[in-house]
Design brief:
Layout: H1 2-12, H2 15-25, H3 29-50, H4 53-67, H5 75-106, H6 112-130, H7 133-142, H8 156-195, H9 203-217, H10 220-230
Transmembrane segments: 31-58, 78-97, 170-192
Function: Plays a role in the flagellum-specific transport system.
Subcellular location: Cell membrane; Bacterial flagellum basal body
Length: 232
């Protein structure tokens, strides 16, 4: 009996380090889950802030307001179209990210942090290409960052908000130009209905079908998509 107890005690000694190593190896698992869930939560904001989705959604909103159709096309339709156009525009950038960061990380050539740094560079260059110098200077001064030797030296916390401001400005500029012909139709329709004494029928009831007809006749969706793609 004593021999069996001694053997069991000796056999349990080497098992303790293995048990401890297994427990300590899984300590980072909850933090990994928290990080992934946080990233998934912030993914829509990241997608909105670092892609052409900002400009596209602003322009589509102005178009629907100019046409006078409150719910047609629906938000889901416009968002789906904006996402597909964003995917189309970002395909070259995503290809570079895959070549420079994802594939080396899968093959074990680089670590996770190195993959993040490498993958951020193509996206950063894309945003710098469309970010205005005025907006970059604004956030550089607000962040008390020394003047860089080149725009590539700017951190992402400066590039991302500057890019969003630049895209908002571009989207509003396109939307204003898009709004003008439809506003002209509204003004002409209101003048005609008022001059002939048609006060019982609101001018918007007459102008909305005319605006939709004009938009369809000139193949407006094709022209709008072509103009938006050429703006990048």
């Amino acid at each position: 009996m004593v021999v069996l107890l001694a053997a069991a005690r000796n056999a349990s000694v080497p098992l303790l380090p293995d048990l401890n190593s297994k427990l300590h190896a899984s300590d980072s698992t909850p933090w990994t889950i928290v990080f992934v869930l946080t990233l998934i939560t912030l993914l829509p904001a990241i997608l909105m802030a670092m892609t052409p989705l900002v400009r596209l959604t602003v322009v589509f909103h102005f178009l629907r307001q100019a046409l006078g159709t409150q719910t047609a096309p629906s938000n889901t339709t416009l968002l789906g179209l904006a996402l597909m156009m964003t995917w189309f525009l970002m395909t070259p950038v995503l290809t570079l990210v895959d070549q420079q960061a994802v594939e080396p990380f899968r093959s074990g050539q680089i670590t996770g942090m190195e993959a993040i740094d490498r993958g951020a560079q193509p996206v950063k260059h894309f945003m710098l290409h469309y970010a205005r110098e005025k907006d970059l200077a604004l956030f550089t001064a607000a962040g008390q960052i020394q003047r860089p030797n080149s725009p590539d030296d700017l951190p992402m916390r400066v590039v991302i908000p500057a890019y969003v401001l630049s895209e908002l400005k571009a989207g509003f500029a396109i939307g204003a130009v898009l709004f003008l012909p439809f506003l002209l139709i509204d003004m002409v329709t209101a003048s005609i209905t008022t001059s002939i004494g048609m006060f019982q029928l609101p001018p918007v009831v007459v102008s909305t079908p005319l605006k939709i007809l004009l938009f369809v006749m000139v193949d407006g969706w094709n022209l709008l998509a072509s103009s938006l793609l050429k703006s990048f």
